[in-house]
Write a structure and sequence with these properties.
single chain, about 110 residues, globular
Length: about 110
Amino acid sequence: MAFEFNGQSIETTATGYLVNQEDWSEDLARAMAEAEEIGELTERHWDVINYLREEYFDNRENQPNTRAIIKAMSDAWGEKIKQDALYALFPFDPSKQGGRIAGLPESRRKGGY
């Protein structure tokens, strides 16, 4: 499969994940979010995206589950958040859909929580 972006064809897997993580950019993330009907990426979206990218690229390709994202975002935002706050940002699973928009490979772990 491919994702059309700025006149280029960006190669993706059958489930929409980038084949080459080097193809990722913030502009591509915005276009992917729009295609998935998330709308404009807010500061909180970017907090999750950047956290997922940091965990993957700086922590031995770790791909946090939803529980870990809740804890990290609660710390980052200075408030205790619940799962529904993350699903409001990424309705099709914060760890999976967020990871896809963050340009990460598809997670092979089971379960989201």
